[in-house]
Amino acid sequence: MALYLGLDASTQSLSAIVLEVDGATRRVVFERSLAFDVVAPGYGTRHGVLPSDDPLVAESSPRMWAEALDRMMAVVARESGLDLSRLRAVSGSGQQHGSVYLTVEGLRAIAGLDAGRPLVDQLAGAFSRERSPIWMDSSTVAECRAIEDAVGGAAALARLTGSRAFERFTGPQIRKFATRHPEAYARTARIHLVSSFLASLLAGADTPIDTADGAGMNLMDLARGEWAAAALAATAPDLASRLPALARPWTVAGRLAPYWTGRYGFPPAKAVVWSGDNPCSLVGTGVTRPGRVTISLGTSDTLFGYLDAPRVDPSGAGHVFGAPTGEWMTLVCFKNGSLARERVRDAHGLDWDAFARALGATPPGNGGRIMLPWFEPEITPPVLAPGVRRYGFDAADAAADVRAVVEAQMLAMKIHSRWMGARVDTIHATGGASANRAILQVMADVFGAAAVPLEVGNSACLGAALRAYHADVVSEGHAIGWDEVTAGFVEPANRHRVAPDRATSAVYAGMERDYAAREAEALREESR
Ligand code: ADP
Ligand code: XUL
């Protein structure tokens, strides 16, 4: 029986899932998660993010990610109890957009890792930038405008790369680094995504960026899956020489490096290119054909669906990324996701059960009370000056506050995903908060569609393991369809299925207009 390992470097944690596949026998045989704040406290992150005085800046530590990967590989080798000689392939999923800046010494260190010493000790001098910008960063407004202007405007950049310029995307972040720190940029030999950096550590070689995660950079020609010369020129000098190759998402980049075989006894399994967490989650929730939609309630809240031809959001709020299947996916991303729900939960001294009870005790529509939940700068819609707005109630009203934050999040997701034109009758729900049935009920009612969580909760990590399986089969010269890859692993947990209530959905249809009006008014005020 073959084993496949999937890893997931998300905002807050590093996870691993091992799958066993033998014909019709398919099961998850190992699952573990390590929270960065807990396993690597020395880096000083909170929820995986380094402290910053500027609320628009969000960075994390590439060294910490490497250390967590090393820890996790040790756990898989020593605590899973699995016969690892059966491991055929490994792949991974990374939080999207974040970038890692390596020096020549860094590239050399990765190619020559010594199994006798901990990984992180070998990365001294490896980075020309110790703090990696991550997807929560909103500090590149000026760079976004400059890039858009240079390529002929926001719409032209969206047609070329799948998105107008977004503050968190890698291109604007690179431009900021290159202009503000030209010497450090000059010392940068390679710029990786979180995904391709960790893939490079596993393969012990400079590993390509896959065309799914590559679409989150404002640097890739979306239709061709190649670096877009015009976007590179608009971003930073000599950028082409600093980027790795792009490759199809099922590319086998090499084998697990001698570091992993020598140090932990792994076999030289195939090291498959990594992808972004949302593209991996597309596979891990079985959304590999049109007509299905996933809502992921992780650190970010995202809504995404499969697309068989690239189509761009005319309003400029959404994205088109590559899909790990080789086609495309649509996505809208909200920064005020789980951490906003936690802020409300903690402000009223609740736990998740009490949070769910508060939802149950309040009427859908909240008696007309509305919140704009911008605890942090928001991505969708773009809000740079954070500030929560409450209409018809104040922050002391715990029950109203709980309902207002969840209703706001679901209404915003509905409104800002309309451009996708997806017919939704079932939503696949994933991410940490999808375990909360009361939240799923609001989701189902707002969308007028059933919401169903999946048997395997960490869909990004599962998707990474499934991608390892797919790449292994394809690299042996066999054809395999995605339904066959995912069969038995992406099962909806139907006992937790939540059906929409017709009368409540009608309430939300009316509330959508009120919410959109409040949002538009607040954005007008912000831009004054
Ligand atoms: P990511 O992969 O983006 O790091 P996860 O998908 O693991 O994040 O989700 C983590 C979040 O899930 C936590 O920040 C927490 O707020 C949320 N969460 C966990 N359990 C519950 C619950 N029962 N109800 C609501 N939210 C929850
Ligand atoms: C997607 C996005 C986030 C990150 C972190 O565009 O920014 O969902 O991938 O999960």
Structural descriptors:
528 residues; alpha/beta; 7-stranded mixed sheet; 6-stranded mixed sheet; 18 helices; 23 strands; 37% helix; 20% strand; binds adenosine-5'-diphosphate; binds D-xylulose
Overall description:
- With 528 residues, the protein is α/β, with parallel strands linked by helices.
- The protein is built from 18 helices and 23 strands.
- The strands form 7 sheets. Strands 1, 2, 3, 5, 13, 14 and 15 form a 7-stranded mixed beta sheet that branches. Strands 18-19-17-16-22-23 form a 6-stranded mixed beta sheet, sandwiched between helices. A two-stranded antiparallel ribbon has the order 4-7.
- A hairpin with a 4-residue loop joins strand 10 and strand 11 (226-227).
- Helix 4 crosses helix 5 (154-161), helix 11 packs across helix 16 (459-475) and helix 14 crosses helix 18 (502-527).
- The longest helix has 26 residues, at 502-527.
- The chain is globular.
- Bound molecules: adenosine-5'-diphosphate and D-xylulose.
- Adenosine-5'-diphosphate binds at residues 10-13, 298-299, 338, 341-342, 352, 431-433, 435-436.
